[in-house]
């Protein structure tokens, strides 16, 4: 009986130790991958529901995110060169220090997006809605040079949404 009790106590202590180790491992897991296992990231994410997903230091160059629901998503220090974001709902997105060079943002909704230190060289922005988006002044001025079209969902012109002056 005593041996069984000692074995049982040893078993419980082993479980506790494993549980503590697992908790510690989760605590030191970088936030960019914590809790993200439920979404499979693939080059074709057309039309996917990715609200509030965190793409931190993600390499999404050339990925198809067209018509995806990206409301509240985070793109910090991410590579989005030549990504297809055509018609994507990017309302309330945080895109800090990300590269959107050559990305297709036509008809995308970027309302209330925080896009500080992000770069949009040669991005296609026809019909994109940047209403209340926060951009670096240089990027905003460069985007104004090619602002054209009206967003098909919000009805807001790209030129007006960027606060461009005539």
Question: What does this molecule look like?
Answer:
The protein has 3 helices and 2 strands. It is 23% helix and 2% strand. It folds into 2 domains: 28 residues; 122 residues, 3 Solenoid (Pectate Lyase C-like), CATH 2.160.20. It is mainly α and 166 residues long.
Q: How are strands sequenced across the largest beta sheet?
A: 1-2
One letter per element, helices H and strands E, the order comes to HEEHH
Q: Could you name the CATH homologous superfamily of the largest domain? A: E3 ubiquitin-protein ligase SopA
Q: Give a quick account of the main beta sheet: strands, pairing sense, barrel closure.
A: 2 strands, parallel
Query: Could you tell me the radius of gyration in angstroms?
Result: 22 Å
**Envelope shape:** elongated
**What is the highest CATH level, the class of the largest domain?**
Mainly Beta
CATH architecture term of the largest domain? 3 Solenoid
- Mean of pLDDT: 86
Low-confidence stretches: 20-29, 32-36
- Helix count, DSSP H or I runs of 4 or more residues: 3
Please count the beta strands (DSSP E, at least 2 residues each).
2
Tell me the span between the first and last alpha carbons.
89 Å
- The CATH topology of the largest domain is Pectate Lyase C-like
Structural class: mainly alpha
Into how many domains do the coordinates divide? 2
| Helix amount | 10-25%
Strand content: under 5%
Task: Based on the model shown, name its key terms.
23% helix; 2 domains; 3 helices; Pectate Lyase C-like; 166 residues; mainly alpha; 2 strands; two-stranded parallel sheet
């Amino acid at each position: 009986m005593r041996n069984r009790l000692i074995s049982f106590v040893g078993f419980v202590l082993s479980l506790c130790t494993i549980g503590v180790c697992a908790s510690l491992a989760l605590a030191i897991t970088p936030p960019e991958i914590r809790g993200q296992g439920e979404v499979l990231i693939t080059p074709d994410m057309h039309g996917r529901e990715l609200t509030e997903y965190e793409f931190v230091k993600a390499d999404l160059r050339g990925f198809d995110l067209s018509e995806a629901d990206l409301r509240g998503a985070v793109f910090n220090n991410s590579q989005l060169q030549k990504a297809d974001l055509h018609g994507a709902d990017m309302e309330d997105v945080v895109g800090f220090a990300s590269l959107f060079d050559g990305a297709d943002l036509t008809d995308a909704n970027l309302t209330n997006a925080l896009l500080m230190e992000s770069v949009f060289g040669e991005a296609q922005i026809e019909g994109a809605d940047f209403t209340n988006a926060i951009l670096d002044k240089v990027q905003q001025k460069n985007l104004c040079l090619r602002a054209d079209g009206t967003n098909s969902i919000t009805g807001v012109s790209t030129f007006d949404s960027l606060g461009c002056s005539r």
